[in-house]
Write a structure and sequence with these properties.
The protein has 13 helices and five strands. It is mainly α. The structure holds tryptophan (TRP). The site of tryptophan has 13 residues, from strand 1 and helix 7.
Length: 334
């Protein structure tokens, strides 16, 4: 009999802290869409994680729904992938508690994101901020994920997830799959258009530094025309040309062209022409996403149907792992 090859499970989450940037799209969400064919994918809106920083309740609620619609608009297909909102699935917080009892104060104290965030929010160093990585470990382990695509800033949290899963398995036998980091082939890190040494961020005070994936075409074009470059004139990918390197990376991700092809196409042309070409490639790529989003966000009923189905399936799948873990530690499972 032919044996069916089981697809590997990929899982990732994104916080609903505002409209995704072009950086989030290229660095994460675009690849999430592509991976749906090859893998069994689970993607979710990490709204519980957002509570570690004070939020305006009505804004958070809207952002969670918008972020969910954005995932769909970017090509995450709820028929192919498991898509849900974290707070709709109570197993996450529950496994989080369990795992927190197998986590040492010392190891959470060493997390660089905790140190950075507690310095940035010195007036609100809450316990959730401290145990953030434990909830993230629960997110991942509940679905027995083989691989987790994460950026550099989340690597340490994934390492922590592996440590805690290994520790738990060493005591209780095989309960959790040990997840690997998934490094995407493009793996592009998109930098600010105004300061190409800084990562592109939606919280940048300089609005010209980032492109939101819902920006209008003229706004996108203006941001690219104003992008910081250097005092040379050649479009070549070379160390030290951080602004041009960033624009070339964006252009390459939008068009699929290699750096060599781009260099050749723009030989003898100036930065002005190049910036316009990059801007136009981004406008064209984002146009259908903006249109999809406009359509989807008007269809609240469809969105509700999708996240309800997603939550039900996520609840079912994750409960298996949670119940296994509960039994192992000696809780009386009903
Ligand atoms: N902490 C991640 C971030 O801020 C979001 C996240 C939460 C996540 N849970 C996850 C990512 C599980 C991957 C897997 O980017």
């Amino acid at each position: 009999m032919e044996e069916q090859v089981k697809k590997k499970v990929i899982l990732s989450g994104i916080q609903p802290t505002g409209v995704f940037t072009l950086g989030n799209y290229i660095g994460a969400v675009q690849n999430w869409g592509k991976m749906q064919e090859e893998f069994e994918c689970a993607y979710f809106i990490a709204d519980l994680h957002s509570l570690t920083v004070r939020q305006d309740p009505s804004v958070l609620k809207k952002r969670a729904l918008d972020a969910f619609a954005l995932l769909l608009a970017c090509g995450i297909d709820p028929e192919k992938s498991l898509v849900f909102i974290q707070s709709h699935v109570n197993t996450h917080a529950e496994l989080g508690w369990l795992l927190s009892c197998y986590t040492q104060f010392g190891e959470l104290s060493r997390m660089t994101q905790f140190k950075d965030k507690s310095a940035a929010h010195a007036d609100n160093i809450n316990a959730g901020l401290f145990t953030y990585p434990v909830l993230m470990a629960a997110d991942i382990l509940l679905y027995q994920a083989d691989m987790v695509p994460v950026g550099a800033d989340q690597k340490q949290h994934l390492e922590f997830t592996r440590d805690i899963a290994t520790r738990f398995n060493n005591i209780y036998g095989n309960v959790f799959k040990i997840p690997e980091p998934y490094i995407s082939k493009s793996g592009a890190r998109i930098m600010s258009l105004q300061d190409p040494l800084k990562k592109m961020s939606k919280s940048d005070a300089n609005l010209n530094g980032f492109v939101s994936i819902l920006d209008e075409p003229n706004v996108i074009m203006n941001k690219f025309k104003r992008a910081v470059t250097d005092s040379e004139t050649e479009v070549v990918f070379r160390e030290g040309k951080d602004g041009i390197n960033n624009l070339m990376t964006i252009y390459s991700c939008m068009t699929g062209l290699t750096m060599e092809q781009i260099e050749k196409d723009f030989e003898g042309k100036g930065y002005g022409d190049f910036k316009i070409a990059v801007g136009e490639s981004v406008v064209e790529k984002l146009r259908p996403i903006r249109e999809n989003f406009d359509r989807l966000s008007k269809d609240k009923k469809y969105l509700e149907e999708c996240y309800t189905k997603g939550a039900e399936l996520a609840q079912r799948v994750s409960s298996r792992t949670l119940n296994k873990a509960k039994k192992k530690v000696g809780l009386l499972v009903k």
